[in-house]
Write a structure and sequence with these properties.
Blueprint lengths: L1 H9 L4 H24 L10 H23 L10
Helix pairs in contact: 1-2
Length: about 80
């Protein structure tokens, strides 16, 4: 689903619309994954607890932000006049 939204954005779809579509569609998935990881094993979860689940998500977000930040090509310096 996200690949289709990304494709729509690169093909010229409205950036605001594609952002909100991605946000609305991925929010329930993230909440379900968080519940799955934090719930006790007796209830069908992974039993990590809320603290370790939150720390895991935080680490994942930091890695993604760093990757996107450093992935781009370095900016060319402005020509000197």
């Amino acid at each position: 689903m996200i690949a289709l939204i990304s494709l729509a954005y690169y093909l010229g779809a409205n950036p605001v619309l594609t952002f909100w579509l991605a946000y609305i569609l991925t929010r329930p998935l993230g909440a379900s994954l968080g519940d799955l990881l934090s719930q006790a094993r007796e209830y069908g979860g992974a039993g990590l607890g809320t603290i370790y689940t939150s720390l895991g998500f935080l680490a994942f977000i930091i890695v993604l932000v760093a990757w996107v930040t450093f992935e781009g090509k370095p900016a060319k310096p402005a020509p000197v006049r």
